[in-house]
């Protein structure tokens, strides 16, 4: 059974009255513990696909299955499902400016459980395991780009999700920090068997993944 | 939030001014007058027999603190070239407790009326006549004018001023002249009769005066008229209370205007935190919880603003009572001092109304949270 499976995902957008076909019947599968890259040109529909896979958007037709079951459609159930099963890392870290690193990481667990002290303790452990123990109480504007993205990765992992979707996680970083982040993702995949689906422009990154797909003309092609 | 601070201060101080005025007026009216009066129906005075019947009924009433007869007659007060129309009140000043706060209001001289021709006159009347304690005035009774072969003769008598009466109520201070009951009786030539009986109620019965008056009138039977302070002043206090609430509503509009800033501040905050809203939604936070976060933030700010506004209003109120630049016109407003009355109930009311308005003003822009789509936010 696949961890993530899609069937004939179709998505169109209306652009000044003209219907643009972005995703044309995508069938996509990810096994537990895999690290998958999706590459493609700008505007090819990579992010749209990631949003649908991450249940942030709905397809016009087709379906998304997690562990063989259809993803929920009702808003409240969907929010809960995302909270417990899916992690996100975006190009922009989207850390909450008024909260420190530990509180930012704790946020998804706090949303899910409402237990503040437990959430903060787990966040602290997680940040420490990612080498951020010296930055626990720093606010996002006191962290470097690489550190901000490490905090975002820790936030994505706090609820021990089945899968983490990363949309250009190194898009805003220089080569050194970019390499550090990808190495961290590889480490997490190797040590914790964490499943990642990563959207990237960078061929050097996609080549480090176990599988790599290319998005072209609304279709996914392996390799 | 500065707008809310100012609006709350204005709302609280205006409410406190009205309530202060209402209380001051009530205190003077209830202090200078009795709570219930018993008259003979028509224009007759109360006879000895009437008094016996009244005592029979009143002595068994537990609501009564004290009661006493009074003679009321109009006269003219004259001092040299000065003269003024007055109301002569013949009272029994020797009782342990009087039906009115007569003693309290005699602040200059003595309230004893120990000599039969002693009199206490209103402080404004004294000013008008140019007299003070120790001086004499002549009271002329136009009611007892006789036509004689020598012409029209009025009954007049000279009185010595033993004290000045200052209630703060302009009308009373410029019209009232007090003397002993028997002196007034002789002056008005009414023999053993009295004008009415003044009744003071226990403080917890004051607001029931109307019902008690109705009950006693029935008990006394035909020929008696029992009237409460509410009958005399009810309309005045109804108008004051009505004006107070109208002003409260008008002043609440200031808070509504101030809350427009809350609407724009919340809308701006939503714009600024769109990315954060997006990520929190992505991580499963519900729209209701997101709204609660923004709402609680605004409620905390509004609580601080309201507390500061109430403190500012209180300072303004204290300043108004202590300043001497402006005083009320006693002949227009009955009392000539500005009074303010702050109560925790009013502070709570202002707080509640402000919080409600701010909460509603915050919820209007917060409706947008439900319409914000995570994908659109993340796409920027």
Provide the residue-averaged pLDDT of chain A: 88
Instruction: Give the strand content of chain A.
Output: 25-35%
Count of the domains of chain A: 1
Question: For this structure, what is the CATH homologous superfamily of chain A?
Answer: P-loop containing nucleotide triphosphate hydrolases
Biggest sheet features of chain B: 6 strands, mixed, barrel
Structural class of chain B: alpha+beta
- Gyration radius over CA of chain A: 17 Å
Strand order in the largest sheet of chain B: 2-3-8-5-7-6
Q: How many separate helices of chain B?
A: 13
Structural category of chain A is: alpha/beta
Determine the most extensive contact between two protein chains.
Answer: A-B, 24 and 17 residues
Give the count of helical stretches of chain A. Answer: 7
Largest sheet of chain A: 6 strands, mixed
Query: Helicity level of chain B, as a percent range?
Result: 40-55%
**Secondary-structure element string of chain B:** HEHEEHEEHEEHEHEHEHHHHHH
* Strand count of chain B: 10
What's the shape of chain A?
Answer: globular
Q: Report the CATH C-level class of chain A.
A: Alpha Beta
How would you characterize this protein structure?
The complex is a heterodimer of chains A (223) and B (380). Chain A has 223 residues and is of the alpha/beta class. Chain A has one domain (4-222): 3-Layer(aba) Sandwich (Rossmann fold), CATH 3.40.50. In chain A, 36% of the residues lie in helices and 28% in strands. Chain A has seven helices and ten strands. Chain A has helices spanning 46-53, 75-85, 101-113, 116-129, 145-157, 175-192, 203-206, and strands at residues 4-15, 18-30, 35-40, 61-66, 69-70, 86-89, 163-167, 195-199, 211-216, 219-222. In chain A, the strands form two sheets. Chain A has a six-stranded mixed β-sheet. In chain A, helix 3 crosses helix 4 (116-129), helix 3 runs parallel beside helix 5 and helix 5 packs parallel to helix 6 (175-192). The longest helix of chain A has 18 residues, at 175-192. Chain A starts with a strand and ends with a strand. Chain B has a six-stranded mixed β-barrel. Chain B contains 13 helices and ten strands. In chain B, 54% of the residues lie in helices and 22% in strands. Chain B folds into two domains: 2-25 and 235-379, no CATH class; 32-233, no CATH class. In chain B, helix 1 (2-32) packs across helix 10 (287-322) and helix 10 (287-322) packs antiparallel against helix 12. Chain B is an alpha+beta fold. The two termini of chain B are 30 Å apart. Classes of the chains: A alpha/beta (223), B alpha+beta (380). At the A-B interface, helix 2 and helix 3 of A face helix 9 and helix 13 of B.
